[in-house]
Amino acid sequence: MRFKLLTVFFMVSSLGFSQATLSTLNEIADFAINNSLDSRRSQVSLDKAENDVVSYIKVDSTKVSTTGNYNQDGDITFNTSLNIPIVEQLSISGGVDGELNGSVSLNIDPIVHSNSVPLSVNNYDTALLNNVKILSSVEQNAVKAALDWMLGSRALELLDKQTQRYKTLYEDDKNRYSNGSITLDELQESLINWSNARKSLLEQKQSFYTLESNLYAQLGTTKESVIIEKLDLDDMIESLNQLYRLVESGSGDYLKDIDYQSAVLTSDKAKLTYNAIWVYDPDITGSIKLDLTDQGVSMDNFAASLNFSLSLDNVNYTEKKRAQEEYLISVKDRELKLDKARLDFEQCKDLVESSKIESEIFKFEYAQAEILLSEAVILYNAGEYSEIELLESKLFLEQAENNLLNSYKNEYLNLLDYLKYF
Fold first, then answer.
1. pTM for this one?
2. Does some domain include residue 274?
């Protein structure tokens, strides 16, 4: 997906500020990814996990220290020590004084074992997967909020026109009542229709304000900072075609389901923890020591040692059993997530097909509304249709267009959801 390539986040600075213009759904999605607080938090977590990845080679943990001593005779002496951990099982240490006398040791811990390296890699992979999941969520939420806002705006405009139509009808009906063409009940019904339309208009305004507030919250910005251009039918068709081209150029696989991949990483982590625990965990250490002089390495005082110990603290039966149970639970969860991923994948495909069929139905209705409007124009020009009747046909076409756009919105969101498996 597009957002996987966005690893650097750009924030709009208050200095030299310019209002951004978003004219496509891709621009809206990218803007949200770049500005969302969730995206930024996720990137920080990912960077930290990457920085915390541990290496098997420990040379970067080398330590050098120097100490100085002063005695009452006025003598100053210096001692320098060095510790070089190569791997967990092997290190070199030593020290010399100011006259280059000292020692060097090779330290061996042959059975020391740690899962810190694979665990750090697992943590990074988990953070990377979580980052993809968050960016996908930010993208989908922003696009949905933008489309809901656009459709809400169109619905508000249509309701305003319909309210004006009901007002005109009521004013006409008052004149008709005055000359006896309609009854009082018919006049009252006309007034009720106008009142209901005004009530619906107010409710739609409140709904639109909520949609607008949600949109800018999803974008991580303010209304004054960005201009969002509304899409028409041609824009939506092109946006849909872009997604269909992505589907045609790729191959969906339920194994790419993020929740399933997360369960796999969790299971791998539980297995690492289980394998790192030994029921009997003794300490075995050895060292080889050589003296150093100003002439170099001396074999005169060669020394070697080997130490073995096993205490009750080194018996980890309970910890091993608990870790095994946690691993088995994670394996079961992974299997359940796999079954769910397979089902969700098939459902996503079905939803795309269903929404495509729905769009075809509303596309047909829109085409019929266009035909009816053209007929209404002919009748109006012939004097057989009133202006209010022509307006009714125009509003019917506008409603059909809104219905079609709404079906395109559902189709687009279903495609976005489906593309998570690519």
1. 0.80
2. yes
